[in-house]
Description:
With 82 residues, the protein is mainly alpha-helical. It is 63% helix and 0% strand.
Amino acid sequence: MKNITIGLLMALTLSTPALASWKTELFTKLDADTSGEISLTELTGAGCRTQPKFFSYADKDRSNGLSKAEFFDSRDLLGRCN
């Protein structure tokens, strides 16, 4: 049991940087104007099937753009991108 726990902890530790890197890469790709936020125009321009009402819901601070945290917190609402 101890070996399984150690193995699981090592796997989680090793995968965390890869996950962070993947998120950063996706966010950077979608943030075409490098403003630090993704606009609805940028999302739809990248081929994401996003409805404006879901985008507005995800934009918690009402800045008309999604921060990295807002984007990934609401990823399931925003639809998939091509």
